[in-house]
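hey can u run this one w/ IPE bound, need the structure tokens asap thx
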Amino acid sequence: MDGSTDAASRHASEGAPRHVAVIMDGNGRWAEARGLPRAEGHRRGLEALRRTIAAADAAGIRFFTVYSFSSENWRRPTGEVSALLSLLRRFVRADTAEMHANNVRIRYIGSRDGLDHDIKALLAESEALTARNTGLTLVVAFNYGSRDEILRAAKSLVADAAAGRLAPEAVDEALFASRLDAGDVPDPDLVIRTSGEMRLSNFLLWQAAYSEFVFTPVWWPDFDGRHLEEALDEYRRRDRRFGGLSASGGRS
Ligand code: IPE
Ligand code: IPE
Ligand code: MG
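ok here u go:
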């Protein structure tokens, strides 16, 4: 995980997308199909996340974004919401040190407003600890909704304009994008959604304007490095045109 350029990692990263984002879906159905509580599906989903981060790093991916909890997931029963919050706490507490040792930089996107103080502190600590790491950047979308993120970016621009710090004509795509939660992270090249659902569910609406999409029927707790490789193979077969003509838009 140290970004070394030995032959194996050079080979692994050939044609790899720079930024992969994953909508980790299907934990509940995985559990229900086995007669288990939904929380058990989420617990197994955390294990899938751990192995997929390692696989993404080994594949030469530089930015890996995961959708862990949406701004709409608060609509679920309180017990399920608590289970998900506990898992987030567990992940941040138990995994940050190892990721730091592996040179992973951790970021969080989503609104921090209204989150419990202990969660806010955990997120800030793990970001600060890993801020100077130069390996894989892991972006965890937590309490994340893309419309909320876009609105917050718009409000920050409007506030600057109203205060006379910003001329409206100066607002362009680059400035707008820089006000998003991880404004310095490049757009995702590939978005993967598990569990067979084919929608974005309020994920990266601005950033995914030209992303490639891979939908897999696999439930997230079953996802592993092989499934990631399949998605990367599918990505390599795609022809990204960005509105131009074939082969005019190179893969980054
Ligand atoms: C994804 O699994 C995890 C979260 C949305 C937090 P789900 O809990 O949505 O699982 P399904 O879609 O009900 O199977
Ligand atoms: C999207 O999944 C959010 C996460 C994976 C964290 P959902 O399961 O909440 O999405 P919908 O409700 O099926 O669209
Ligand atoms: Mg779901």
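Confidence is low (pLDDT under 50) at residues 1-10. anyway lmk if its weird
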